[in-house]
User: What shape does this take?
Amino acid sequence: MNINQEQLNIFKTVMETGSFSAAARQLGKVPSAISMSIANLEIDLNLKLFERIGREPKPTDQAHVLYKKTLLLLTEIQQWAQHAHALSTGLESTLSIVVVSELIHTEWTDYIALLEHEFPMLQIDIFSAPQEDALRILMQGDVQFALMFERESLDHRESFIELKQETLVPVVSLQHPLAQQQQISLETLRYYRQVIVTARDRHIKPELLFSSQYWRTDNHQLALSLILKNLGWGLLPLTMLQQNPLLYTQLKILDILDITPQLDYYIDLVWNKEARLGQASQFLIDHVRSQRLKKV
Assistant: This one.
């Protein structure tokens, strides 16, 4: 069996136009060429696709079944060709992004939707990791981008663009002893267990650590579960509470004497400037830069 795309396209056109002559006009061929192509297709398939009775060919039941399959197959062939062309012009085979755990409640999916719209054939992989892990896997080349908080010091290999600000707030369950106090000093906080989202590597000292006693997790949802169980206090994204107002009835935002209770951090789109950027990666960087220029 040796069926090609042209035969499938001719079969599809005959089914849609209802005659060999109409299909010939639409495809810019002579009717005899259309008739010959359908006859060869029937031989290859060992099926009768059209009853040649009367002025116009009448599709058989088998033809109607194969027509639906033909539409799918031609669409896949077209997508395959488009994807191959995109790859030949510099599109990545896969674009991988790691989102810092505390930021999965932000509007980062807007950027994914934009990429999907511009590059529908692009394979996109998305991961979540604590801040320290996210930077490590970015520099190892496992992902092209990291969506993460600002860093105290920069790796010489990284480039970034500021996207927005995110606020972290210190919270406890309403049953926690800290919830009974109006204001709390940093010294007092040291004596209460902190639930902290941090790297899986225990050799890396957690950022935003205030307590001498702490439990580690790599996911803010796990941190929330522990905090709600009255097992410690922790820092959670304010957007997490805003998107789930029920949490305001279960948690108290701590008023800390020595610092502003709301900790504001910039969120950056980070990439390795030594890595080769593909078409979609460069598009995302250019888009974010243009959005920043509009705000200035």
The chain is about 40% helix and 20% strand. The mean pLDDT is 85. The CA atoms of residues 155 and 216 lie 25 Å apart. The longest strand covers residues 158-173.
